[in-house]
């Protein structure tokens, strides 16, 4: 329970922070619900402003996080949010309407986390998770909700991507691939399964390619301007064993640990599916892991050439999109039509 003097101090901190954030956003006329524009079924030119109730729901429904960049702990902000909802709503709506993300929202404290119980002495075993200010993540959630709804309503997201999608998981990806291989074997066909893994995929996303992809999907106007601002001029500091590095600028990538990062990554990867399907392969993805597979008659002499051609085009697509395959985790598996068949494929991606 907060005392009266403590609550006043916290409110003062929030008001001061509000003034600092607001000064970084270009002043615009007040916005109304009528400013939300979708000129056709595949166009989103601006984001809809939020009501105070919308902002309150976003703040109270969010899991409390710990970030050194927050002026006060998240759980305290949530406890007194009703007193400062008008100010927080103003920050969010000013940002959405102007297409500008405050620079304070684009700073991250990176905390390297060990991916699995692996050797902690190897740098490649760590994932660089970005700790971001709570209010900035609230703003991201406002954009995420509208951007994802636009993509879902217009069927713009890859239906074969199980990552970052409600009602989907690693299990749905596994079941989809397993069932396809089972049906092929039941039809007396052999199958090839290729497991692709990307190196530091989130960190190497090219912003101009991503913005071009968003534009082709129908994002324009201040909505596209906001996303450009979100991606631009980001910075980070690394925190390790009580020490903090100097601030560094980010010219590529989307932050791991952000709200929008996973959705933007999925959008960035959408055109890969057509490259795979062009060669007659099926595929399923979970985040940056892609499984491509196809079934064939056991005596088909064209299998090796088809695999090579598909992997060659995938490699070209990866190069064009500034992504790199992790060859140590990329595998090719063969599922024979029955135990009497033995396929000997030796192909490097």
From TrEMBL:
InterPro entries: DNA/RNA_pol_sf, RT_dom. CDD domains: RT_nLTR_like. Residues 94-349 form the Reverse transcriptase domain. Residues 1-22 form the signal peptide. Keywords: Signal. The keyword Lyase does not apply. The keyword Signal applies. PANTHER family: REVERSE TRANSCRIPTASE DOMAIN-CONTAINING PROTEIN (PTHR33332). This is Reverse transcriptase domain-containing protein. It comes from Cyprinus carpio.
């Amino acid at each position: 329970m907060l005392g009266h003097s403590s609550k006043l101090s916290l409110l003062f901190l929030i008001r001061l922070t509000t003034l600092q954030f607001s000064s970084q956003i270009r002043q615009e006329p007040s916005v109304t619900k009528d400013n939300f524009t979708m000129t056709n079924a595949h166009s989103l030119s601006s984001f809809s402003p939020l009501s105070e109730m919308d902002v309150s729901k976003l703040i109270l429904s969010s899991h409390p996080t710990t970030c050194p960049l927050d002026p006060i702990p998240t759980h305290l902000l949530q406890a007194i949010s009703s007193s400062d909802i008008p100010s927080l709503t103003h920050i969010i709506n000013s940002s959405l309407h102007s297409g500008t993300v405050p620079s304070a929202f684009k700073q991250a404290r990176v905390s390297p986390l060990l991916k699995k119980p692996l050797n902690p002495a190897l740098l490649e075993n760590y994932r660089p998770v970005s700790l971001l200010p709570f209010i900035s993540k609230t703003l991201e959630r406002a954009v995420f909700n509208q951007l994802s709804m636009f993509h879902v309503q217009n069927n713009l997201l890859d239906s074969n991507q199980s990552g970052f999608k409600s009602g989907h998981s690693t299990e749905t990806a596994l079941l989809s691939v397993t069932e396809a291989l089972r049906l092929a074997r039941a039809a007396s066909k052999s199958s090839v399964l290729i497991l692709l893994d990307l190196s530091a995929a989130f960190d190497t996303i090219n912003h101009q390619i991503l913005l071009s992809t968003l534009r082709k999907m129908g994002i324009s106007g201040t909505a596209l301007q906001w996303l450009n601002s979100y991606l631009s001029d980001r910075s980070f500091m690394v925190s390790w064993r009580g020490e903090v590095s100097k601030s560094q600028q980010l010219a590529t990538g989307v932050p791991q640990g952000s709200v929008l990062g996973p959705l933007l990554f999925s959008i960035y990867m959408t055109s890969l599916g057509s490259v795979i399907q062009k060669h007659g392969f099926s595929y399923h993805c979970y985040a940056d892991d892609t499984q491509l597979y196809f079934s064939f008659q056991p005596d088909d002499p064209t299998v090796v050439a088809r695999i090579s051609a598909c992997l060659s085009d995938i490699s070209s697509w990866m190069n064009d999109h500034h992504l790199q395959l992790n060859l140590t985790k990329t595998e090719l598996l063969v599922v024979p039509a029955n135990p009497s068949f033995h396929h000997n494929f030796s192909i490097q991606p």
